[in-house]
Design goal:
It is a single chain. The protein has 491 residues and is mainly α. It contains 22 helices and five strands. Strands 2-3-1-4-5 form a five-stranded mixed sheet. Strand 4, helix 4 and strand 5 form a beta-alpha-beta unit. Helix 13 runs antiparallel to helix 14. It is flat.
Length: 491
Amino acid sequence: RRGVSQTPRRGVSTGVPDMAVIISQSQGEIEAFTKKGLDIAPHRTRMVNEDLETKFKDASDPLRIVFVCAMWMTGFDVPSCTTVYLDKPMRNHTLMQTIARANRVYAGKTHGLIVDYIGVFCNFQQALAIYGAGTDGQVSPDNLPVKDKAALRIQLQDALTEALEYCIKRGVMIDPIIIAPVFDRIKLMDDAVERLISDDASKRRFLELADAVDRTFRAILPDARANEYGPTRAVFIALAARIRNLTAPVNIDAVMAEVNALLDRSIAPDVGYIISAPVPDNVIRNQANDYVPDHLVDLSTIDFAAIQATFAAGRKHTEVDKLRGLLTAKLNQMLTINPTRMNYLETFEQMIEDYNAGAMSIDQLFAQLFHFTQELSVEEERHLAEQLSEEELALLDRIITPEVTLSKAEREQVKQLARDLVASLKRERLVLDWRKKQQARAGVQVAIEEGLNNLPDAYDVDRFPQTVTAIYQHIYDNYVSAEQSTYTRAA
């Protein structure tokens, strides 16, 4: 027999785990099992009436453990499967394939666990020599696909030591955070975050170290000795979550509640084996500067007085990172609507680069970000000053980019062309799935050419076709149909 189990998908409550037996059907099986004091009938009913294969492959389904004999042992791919229990002699390719069932890549999964009840691994080296040798016919001990947990515990100790030393060099002590009461712990963690995000390189390095601790910790589970490292690992998770939350606005209240509860339990005497709840992927796994929230950011709602007060009180790096996160999200939204605003992104990135290079202080960076926020607010309202909608302004900006010299009257002429072209395309050409039909695409191309025929003389024989191509690409990229576009999603 072989048992396999899988890890629940993060964020999904699976309730009471379900189990099932998977075994090939044979003649006279009911009588044969009855003689052994076993009843195969209810299990066979499930195997016949239920799609157990699909259920087990669904990480959100309660079916978490299956007992198999030969079926599903090789070639049955369930990426979320984390654990294989072996109590059946196996050799060569059968052993290698069975082990591989727990070695599939899956979101949130860091490892696979093989539990050997019968000493199957005495055949492992032989199988590896046949199927896993390198070009020289040798098996490197450093590249074994299966490692003993003792080695993983050493790896975890090394990861913790490196992370702790990094924190100490920056004046962050982890032990006081572990033993502090909840309210004191919050202040200590805020102080720690301020010291750990002095620049992007320092922030990235800490997040790398915290992730290494978390991955290695989860790799040694289930193991009661994990409790020894649980409180320290919990603090690293919480600090990483707080740091990422500065530039990736997400709600981590539930995470912090779990961390506080875990710390309180972990430092209690005679505590049992503890497994903490998994941290949501968007809090822990994403890189700090890559995540952009999917909700719209309204700069007018930012309480700059509160940010300035906290900045003046000493949380300078923290407040700069918060403001930077909001600006990153806002720029992403504004560029999605109108890609000609790329110069704003370049200005923003140059400020951050100058700070990281030591060309400006944190106070200077904060002042520049504050001024930059005001510039973005003006740009965001420019369509009102131009008396255009956002999509009309985006089209106008595409027509006049690269910059072209126009008189005031000519610019007003181009603005009206932009209005008319958007209206006519949405009214007559942008039907559902127009991008998939050659005739519809050609119709849009012709409509753009006709709509731009009255452009000023500055759009000469060289510039006119370039403008038509740019506008067609803009329409293609942003409009699924008249009713579904970048601008309807941003509304």
